[in-house]
Amino acid sequence: AAQVGWSQPGTARGIAVADLDNDGDLDVIVTRQFAPASIYRNDGADKAWLGLFLEGDGRRCNRDAAGTRVVAQLPDAGPGTRQVRELHTINGFSAQSDRRMLFGFGQQTGRVSVDIHWCGEPSADKRVLEPGRYHRVRQADLG
Questions:
Q1: Calpha distance 136→1 (Å, rounded)
Q2: Per-residue confidence at 143, pLDDT binned at 50, 70, 90?
């Protein structure tokens, strides 16, 4: 733990991960019962990444898009870049992590192909997005 800067002793009550500085890597917040919270910033090397903030239409999918599954990959880099995430709105005790989705692609480059299965729908909303930033994606209102 000391190698990554986690040297503060004590009993933790909750842990949350979030990209606090919007730079594409996850930072960590640790809460304690009788002591102040600690923030551990991740200042890793520049890497390719893509972030998503999803919003359901409120009818076919809830506004928070909970239960939505996303498949992201770099088409030109081959199948080894394929990543799958599912959006959950709760994930721990005494803390709540960032609900934005984050995909990391290391040194790979290129636009990212994204298939969004809103709230478990079998058909996907397909997008091609630029890496290196967060995208707000709203479920299309198809009637």
A1: 34
A2: very low
95-120, pLDDT tens digit by residue? 778 899 999 999 888 999 999 999 98
In a domain, 9, yes or no: yes
The span from the CA of 138 to the CA of 93, in Å, is: 29
Structure tokens at 99: 């609900």
Residues in the chain: 143
pLDDT at 9: 73
**In the prediction, which pLDDT does 63 show?**
96
Determine the 3-state secondary structure of 106 from DSSP. Answer: strand
124's tokens: 């996907």
Mean predicted confidence (pLDDT) in 21-50: 89
pTM: 0.86
Place of tokens 């506004």: 63
If one counts the domains in the chain, the total is: 1
Distance CA 84, CA 101 (A): 10
Whether 143 is covered by a domain: the verdict is no
Range of the domain at 59: 2-138
Query: What is the Cα–Cα distance from 39 to 75, expressed in whole angstroms?
Result: 36
List all residues 6 or more positions away from 70 whose beta carbon is below 8 Å from its beta carbon: 52, 54, 84, 85, 86, 87, 101, 114, 115, 116, 117
